[in-house]
Amino acid sequence: MAAAGKRRAGNAPILFVLPALFFFFAVFLYPILRTILMSFFRIEGITDPIPKWSFIGLQNYEKLFRTALFRISLWNLFRIWFLGGILVLSLSLLFAVILESGIRGKRFFRAVIYLPNIVSAVALATMWLQYVYSPKFGLLKTVFSSLGMKSLSKIQWLDSAHKFESLLLAYCFGMIGYHMLIFMSGIERIGTEYYEAATLDGAGRFQQFRYITLPLLKGMFRTNLTMWSVTSVGFFVWSQLFSTVTADTRTITPMVYLYMQVFGAGNSVTERNAGTGAAVGVLLSLAVILIFRLANRLLKDRDLEF
Questions:
Q1: What is the pTM (predicted TM-score) of this model?
Q2: DSSP 8-state secondary structure symbol assigned to residue 129
Q3: How far is residue 165's CA from residue 95's CA, in Å, rounded to a whole number?
Q4: Phi, psi (5° rounding) for residue 301?
Q5: What is the pLDDT of residues 43-97, one digit of tens each?
Q6: What fold characterizes domain 70-298?
Q7: 128, 170 contact by CB (below 8 A)
Q8: Contact 137, 129 (CB under 8 A)
Q9: ∠ CA 90-93-98 to the nearest 5 degrees?
């Protein structure tokens, strides 16, 4: 009896873990494995059973890199990630440092800067399209006209020459608050004794920022870079809202191209192939993993302590 009771007690942890393992496999691991497998097949419908799949090996990947539209989407994504990343992470760090410097109204300004993050992307993009960038009564046109800058007030922000820059600016505006909070959480962890000691040694604000704040925020930089990469790779809604056509070369991203391949949207897609869409997803996932590994290698903070 005692031995049986011990066996039941030993099996109890397994019974508690099994539901979590089931959901991990069903919701996370199985979709990943299925997507990787799909990328080696030609699949007309995403819900087609496996017997209807046609094995083509690496042809989906080869086709992607031979397609000019996909290469353009990759270039657009890189610009969003690189240029937008510099803008967002720089401004979010600046705001975090200012708000953590002891200014009055910290909670108010933090809420105001973070506010765009609680507004849906559709509503935010609509605001920029119909209010900020409007060529008739837009905010930019009104401000530049009131300042006497006639040439700037006449710029058509949504034409093909300026659409990408307008899209990037609007998107970055909505992302600063999120990354600012991550930086603020890192700054709050830094002990005040470091700054007090630096002040006694005659270090100014800039020197304290360079030699104390920045080194001790490496972990936050790594987190922000990873999160920015994940959100950039999933860039879809903003691209769709800023484009009147699905395959607009100024705003198309790999996620939009994936959508076109899977559902046959857009005039440039003559056939549906969910396998090609799966290949796009695999490539984007590999890009995020690569960035994560590089960030871990370059932004090491093991030799630092709080």
A1: 0.86
A2: I
A3: 23
A4: -130, 25
A5: 888 888 888 899 999 999 999 999 999 999 999 999 999 999 999 999 999 999 9
A6: MetI-like fold (1.10.3720)
A7: yes
A8: no
A9: 125
